[in-house]
Design goal:
about 375 residues, alpha+beta, three-stranded antiparallel β-sheet, 11 helices, globular
Length: about 375
């Protein structure tokens, strides 16, 4: 039986004990190899859908169509359309987890959060789970590009939606996970070996003693900010934002890194993502662009009534926590460099993020130290 099915069964049992008798989410023990070409994968996806949704068991495979929606450096998204009867077509999204992502993602935490975030109107509705992924409702919208996020109207809407997201309460511990996750990543990242000689040689140039010192120093420094703890998305890049242009409706999706965390980390991390996977930090939002975002985050209904002091305080918070974002994804990238079969230069990504951290550290620390908001 698949890990996802086991997790969901355990959670459903817990809900029943707490008086929640909602119907169980359909599940399957099947898994699908993400490395297969779509032509080979499609029949397996169809078989999976029939196993999850018993009402489709007797339908002919010709009534199904499977197409790739997107594929980042963690997941593969597929759109499955089903002609249930004449003139009626239903579409769903099948999300396949990247291989070995359990090293960096807490799937139980993700499934727990999805139930409550979906109820609050975020993301796609969870329809089913299977061995290495989940089935969700299909969102009729386009995935944003990094350049979209800096457009004033879209930036304002992202800020408003993120504010609502941060107001959702997820049952369980509200302990911020940032440093727990970073140290977990560091522990794995610092003990790797690579079969590829060039990768091993490059890996050995990393001083993990220095990296650990940087993590500890930043952790101790951020404590002084007293940043609010909220349920955070933690991965608000363009690929996890969708927009229906006709309806002008924005969707926040993919909550696999979601957890209780520091508000400044979620916002600073989002700003870092303006740079895209290429890490072009010349695209990082200016102070004016950040203030535009903050106004709509802090006062969604009255953005022009935000006091200057609140804007400056949140600016400092985001500027310091953006450093933590660099360390988080840098250590994450090292694990992916060893574990992920996806064609992406994860080792190179580590150096891009770590070097940007070192480049920005002094100015971010100075900004916070000079401010009266730092205790």
């Amino acid at each position: 039986m698949g890990a996802a099915k086991n997790i969901w069964a355990k959670m459903e049992a817990g809900d029943e004990c707490n008086g929640d008798h909602s119907s169980a989410i359909p599940s399957s023990s099947l898994a699908v190899d993400t490395s297969l070409p779509l032509s080979v994968m499609a029949p397996r996806i169809i078989a999976l859908c029939k196993d999850v949704f018993k009402k489709w068991e007797e339908l002919d495979d010709s009534l199904f169509s499977v197409e790739r929606v997107s594929g980042g450096i963690t997941n593969l998204l597929l759109k499955v359309s089903v002609s249930e009867e004449a003139g009626k077509e239903v579409s769903i999204t099948v999300r396949l987890y990247g291989p070995n992502t359990e090293y960096v993602i807490n799937r139980e935490r993700e499934l727990q959060a999805i139930k409550y975030l979906s109820a609050a109107g975020f993301g796609a509705k969870l329809l089913g789970v299977f061995g290495n992924g989940m089935v969700q409702s299909f969102i009729n919208a386009r995935t944003l590009e990094p350049s979209d996020m800096r457009k004033p109207k879209i930036a304002a809407e992202i800020a408003k939606q993120l504010r609502k997201f941060h107001e959702v309460k997820i049952p369980g511990s509200e302990e911020p996970q940032l440093w727990i996750d970073i140290f977990k990543f560091f522990e794995k990242a610092s003990t790797l070996t690579f079969d590829d000689a060039d990768k091993q040689k490059l890996y050995e140039t990393i001083s993990f003693e220095d990296l650990q010192k940087e993590i500890l120093e930043l952790r101790d420094f951020t404590v002084q900010l007293n940043a609010p703890v909220v349920f955070s998305h933690n991965d608000l890049l363009s690929g996890n934002l969708m927009l229906n242009d006709e309806e002008e409706r924005l969707y926040l999706i993919d909550f696999e890194y979601g957890s209780y965390n520091y508000r400044g980390f979620d916002i600073g991390n989002h700003f870092n993502e303006y740079a895209g996977y290429d890490c072009d930090y010349s695209l990082y939002p200016s102070k004016e662009e950040q203030y535009h975002f903050f106004r709509h985050y802090l006062r969604p209904n009255n953005p022009h009534e935000v006091p200057e002091a609140e804007l400056e305080s949140l600016h400092i918070e985001a500027e310091v926590y953006k450093l933590a974002s660099h360390l988080y994804w840098a250590t994450w990238a090292l694990i992916q460099a060893r574990m992920s079969p996806i064609e992406f230069d994860y080792l190179g990504y580590f150096f891009l993020r770590y070097n940007e951290y070192k480049k920005q550290k002094s100015s971010s620390f100075s900004l916070a130290t000079a401010s009266s908001s730092l205790v």
